[in-house]
Amino acid sequence: MLGFAVRRVLQIIPTLIILTMILFVLMSILPGDPAFIRASAVKQGRIDLEQVERLREEWGLNDPLPVRYFRWLSGVLRGDLGRSYRTGQDVGDMLKERLPVTLRLVILSMLVAVIGGVSLGFIAAMHQGTIFDLAAMFLAVAGMSIPEFWSGLMLILLVGVTWRLLPTGGYGGGDLAHIALPTLTLGFRYMALIARVTRSSVLDVARNDYVRTARGKGLAERAVRFRHILRNSLIPITTIIGLEFGWLLANTVVIEMVFGLPGIGYLLVMSVLRKDLVAMQGGILVIAAVFLLLNLVVDLLYGFLDPRIRYERKG
Amino acid sequence: MRKRVSMRKFIARNKTLSIGALMVAIVCLVAIFAPVIAPYGYAEASMRDAAKPPSSSHLLGTDQYGRDVLSRVVYGTRLSLLIGIFGQGINICIGVTLGLIAGYFGSRLDDAILGLCNILLCLPVLILAMAVMAVLGPGLMNVFIALGLTNWTYDCRLVRSQTLSIREEEYVSAARATGCSTVRILARHILPNCVGPILVLTTLGMADTILIGAALGFIGLGAQPPQPEWGTMLSQGRDYIRLASWICTFPGLALVFTIMGFNLLGDGLRDLVDPHLRTR
Amino acid sequence: MNRFLLAGVLVLGLLIAPAVIAVGEAQPRYGGTFVTAIPYEEIIGLDPLRLTIWNGSSVGVIIQIHEGAVKWNTTTLEIEPALAESWQLSEDARIYTLHVRKGAKFHNGREVVAQDFKYSFERMMDPELGGLSTYLFSGVVGVDEYVAGTADEISGIVVVSASELRVTLKQIDVSFLHNLCEPGAVIVPQEEVDAIGLDAFNRDPVGAGPFKFGSWIGNEITLEAFDGYWGGRPYLDTIKLAWRPEPGAREAAFDAGELDGLAADPTSYARWKEDPVVSQHMIEGPELWTRHIGFNTEWGPFRLKKVRQAFNYAIDKVTMVESYLHGKAYPATGVFPPVMDAYDPELKGYGYDPEKAKELLAEAGYPDGFTVDIVGDPTSPDWGIPAVVAVMPYLEAVGIHVNPIPTEYGAMVEQVMRGDFEGWVDAFGGVVSSLNYINGFHSSNIGTSNWARYSNPAVDALLDLAGRTTDDDTRIAYLRAAELLIVEDAPIWFDNYNKAVYVYQPWVHGVQPCAVDITYQDYELVWVDDTSPRAGG
Question: Do residues C377 and C412 make contact, with C-beta atoms less than 8 angstroms apart?
Answer without folding.
Answer: yes
